[in-house]
Amino acid sequence: MASKSALLLVAAAAISGCAYKPGPDPEAGVIPVHVPVVSRSDFVFDAAAPNGSLPSSEAARLDSWFRSLDLRYGDSVYVDGGPYSEAARSQVGAIAATYGLFMAQGAPVTAGSPAPGSVRIVVSRTVASVPDCPNWERPAQPNYNNKMMPNFGCGVNANLAAMVANPEDLVHGREGSGVVDVVTSTKAVNVYRSTAPTGTQGLKEIDTKGGK
């Protein structure tokens, strides 16, 4: 009898060891699984710049390239051409200014290097998006495990990613300019201080029997 009990205990221990033990499940918490993801793409254009300046034909090609990229706010324009590219940098800056952009300092690392007598123009574009949204892979009911809905966070975070003009601000943030209009900043405070409290006017008598 004792041997049978021992065998039963060993079998029970073996079966319990095979029990399913789920790992961490993000959908079981309250933090959204769908969050904005910021990605950056670098576009490269090599232009001939004899004597360090762009000929008119190369400037026209560069402008056409900017139009094909739909150059817009949030893009960063760099010039990589060594110490002799200041004249070309000024020309590229003048073309970029027609799109409302300033030149960025430095240049990102790209494959290879510009050929002698040429400069490399790099346009960096940052995009914010929320992958896998919308997501209705699972019905709302039944929800036996009390998990968040698969679409939870898609609406708020997708709108956040869409309304930020420069997606890099989601990563690095942005410091204040330091320029403050005192009149504008104190307008709301002055209205709050100058408005009489509603309690000083007493309670209004409302007649609910007149039917008017």
Question: How does this model look, in words?
Answer:
By secondary structure, the protein is an alpha+beta fold. It has a domain at 39-127: OmpA-like domain (60s Ribosomal Protein L30, Chain: A). 32% of the residues lie in helices and 14% in strands. It has seven helices and three strands, in the order αβαβαβαααα. The protein has helices at 2-17, 56-69, 86-97, 154-163, 169-172, 182-185, 187-194; strands at residues 37-48, 76-80, 118-129. A three-stranded antiparallel beta sheet has the order 1-3-2. The mean pLDDT is 81.
Which terms would index this structure?
212 residues; alpha+beta; 60s Ribosomal Protein L30, Chain: A; three-stranded antiparallel β-sheet; 7 helices; 3 strands; 32% helix; flat
What is this structure's SSE topology?
Layout: H1 2-17, E1 37-48, H2 56-69, E2 76-80, H3 86-97, E3 118-129, H4 154-163, H5 169-172, H6 182-185, H7 187-194
pLDDT below 50 for ≥5 consecutive residues: which ranges? Answer: none
Radius of gyration, in angstroms, nearest whole number: 32 Å
The tally of beta strands, per DSSP, is 3
CATH class bucket of the domain at 39-127:
Alpha Beta
H and E string: HEHEHEHHHH
Quickly describe the structure.
The protein has helices at 2-17, 56-69, 86-97, 154-163, 169-172, 182-185, 187-194; strands spanning 37-48, 76-80, 118-129. The protein has 212 residues and is of the alpha+beta class.
